[in-house]
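Let's practice the habit of predicting before peeking. Look at the sequence and jot down your guess about where helices and strands might fall. Then scroll down.
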Amino acid sequence: MLQRIQSIFLLAVAFINGALPFWVYVWTDAEGTAVYAQNDLTVSLMFISSAILALITIFLYKNRKNQFVVNRLNMILNLILLGVFVYRSLILSGESNISEKGIGMLLPIISIVFLVLANRAIKKDEDLVKSVDRLR
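Done guessing? Here is the structure:
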């Protein structure tokens, strides 16, 4: 059943983490040049792995418990990515040359919101199936 609402949320996460980081800049360095996700290998690998996990989660619809667990792992990966961004923004020199944070730093937060919404919908499906099994 790919037509569930959590599939739309997970597709949004796959798009946000798979395509947007390479179009919008993550931050600008002290010289004023924009730094994209493809300029940093660890950041790009984390974004791509999060997008792949979201796509894998879509096709785990037959086992909702595994889908829920993989979603939580994806949330943890996005939290680690957010921690990397916070660390990078704190070590950027900002006293003499002001460096700006880009919109790309907000992408993990948006992804986490969509993953929470998807987990809520998965939980609702699981509760519905349990209630129907109870009536049999």
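How did you do? The mean pLDDT is 85.
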